[in-house]
Design brief:
The complex is a heterodimer of chains A (150) and B (151). Chain A has 150 residues and is of the alpha+beta class. Chain A is built from three helices and eight strands, in the order H-H-E-E-E-E-H-E-E-E-E. The longest helix of chain A is centred in the middle third of the chain and has 20 residues, at 65-84. Chain B has helices spanning 8-19, 22-28, 30-35, 67-85; strands spanning 37-42, 45-50, 57-59, 64-65, 93-101, 110-119, 123-131, 140-147. In chain B, helix 1 packs antiparallel against helix 2. The radius of gyration of chain B is 16 Å and the shape is globular. Chain B starts with 7 loop residues before the first helix and ends with a strand. Classes of the chains: A alpha+beta (150), B alpha+beta (151). Strand 5 of chain A pairs antiparallel with strand 5 (93-101) of chain B, so a sheet runs across the interface.
């Protein structure tokens, strides 16, 4: 695989390479203001800042589930790249999200996703979304992704 | 119920159920407006449409819609089905949502139709399909659970 797709060893350089999926090459991630804030070996942390135009219930001011789905999908994808150590074509096969407690308005949503199993063709990812306390997640998710390269 | 405790959104929902001016409802929700998601009556059937917007792209190379936008359309279609086709008094709260991504979403309008498979007093089960050119070839489908009321 060419060097263009291999993630660098250095963490800061890795972050920078992965961040282009949030600042540049994925328009919808950019439209929601998603930002990659941390990475580990097979784990990504991405924030969704609170914004008025993402509100799903005007009476409570709570962010719409759809925006949370996008946050989770994007973070899971990055976790798979980190596990692989390189960028490779990926498609989401399925995603299940459980809403554990109501999200509070006005507060950033943080998603932490871990790719805990990678096979030749399929990646398994679990994710949590919290609002400051990872011990009290507002949502948990489970996703499977397929590697589409030869 | 006294007027002061009637939420404005519930009142708007009651009006739209009668008048079918769906845009009043989808415009009242910032996220559906942002996403270009609307409710329409097509050939006597209530459908959701997500208008294509380059901002909704997830993969610029193919190009393909972001999976999250399809999840958003499917969930919105389920919520509007419950709000407009049942007599629920409050905005249903999603408990869980499972999305199967079946085909890549082309850069064009996407439609969705929700089907309430069971409606209990407290919980509703809903299935939703999304498609583009050919309804028999869905690009994504979902099943979702919603809490309708709390005891």
């Amino acid at each position: 695989m060419s060097d263009d797709f291999t993630l660098p060893e250095d963490k800061a350089e890795r972050m920078e390479r992965c961040a282009i999926f949030y600042t540049d090459v994925v328009p919808h991630n950019h439209a929601l203001g998603l930002r990659l804030v941390d990475i580990r070996a097979a784990e990504a942390t991405v924030e969704l800042p609170y914004a008025e135009n993402l509100v799903g219930n005007p009476e409570t001011g709570v962010i719409a589930g759809g925006a949370v789905t996008t946050l989770i999908d994007a973070t899971c994808g990055t976790a798979v790249f980190l596990k692989l150590g390189r960028f490779a074509p990926l498609v989401t096969l399925d995603l299940r999200i459980d809403y554990l407690r109501p999200a509070r308005p006005g507060i950033v949503l943080t998603c932490v996703a871990e790719c805990y199993r990678l096979t030749r063709q399929v990646a398994f990812v679990r994710a949590f979304v919290h609002q400051g306390d990872p011990g009290h997640p507002v949502a948990s998710a489970q996703g499977t992704f397929m590697r589409t390269e030869e | 119920m006294s007027e002061s405790t009637t939420p404005p959104l519930a009142e708007l929902v009651r009006q739209v159920r009668k008048t079918r001016e769906y845009k009043r409802l989808t415009d009242a929700i910032p996220y559906t407006r942002f996403m270009g998601i609307g409710v329409e009556n097509l050939a006597g059937e209530m459908l959701c449409r997500m208008a294509f917007n380059p901002r909704n792209i997830g993969n610029s190379l193919i190009p393909a819609l972001h999976g999250g936008t399809l999840g958003a359309l499917l969930e919105s279609a389920a919520v509007f089905e419950l709000l407009l086709q049942t007599n629920t008094e409050r905005v249903p709260k999603v408990i869980s949502l499972t999305v199967d991504f079946l085909r890549s979403g082309k850069p064009q309008d996407t439609f969705a139709k929700a089907l309430i498979t069971r409606q209990g007093r407290r919980v509703a089960n809903v299935r939703v399909d999304a498609w583009q050119d050919d309804r028999t070839r869905p690009i994504a489908s979902a099943h979702a659970l919603f809490l309708l009321s709390e005891p």
